[in-house]
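Intended use. Records like the one below are meant for learning the mapping from a protein sequence to its folded structure. Do not use them to infer anything beyond what is encoded.
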Amino acid sequence: MKQDLELKSRIKEILKIIHQVSPGNSVELRIPPYGAIQCVAGSRHRRGTPPNSVEMSGEVLIQLIKDPNLWGSLCDTGEIRASGIKSDLSEIFNLAAKKYKNI
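Structure written out for the chain above:
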């Protein structure tokens, strides 16, 4: 139980950092069952399936914030599911990782 709360807390912290470094509403980043945010400047998504979405597990999110260079390989293995023209968040994770390490 305590591990779940710690994991949820870390995930929420990482999502907050990602939203800070890339505010916006054009990409939905989902970490089921922990949360989802909208990020990346651009057109606003309102209803239905967003045109730009990224989904991964909480464990993959933590792995990625520690080593953002894994973006491509995690996409290739299907651990990150990204669709849409704005769904490449590799640079955003580079920025977020720098901020995360400073906390």
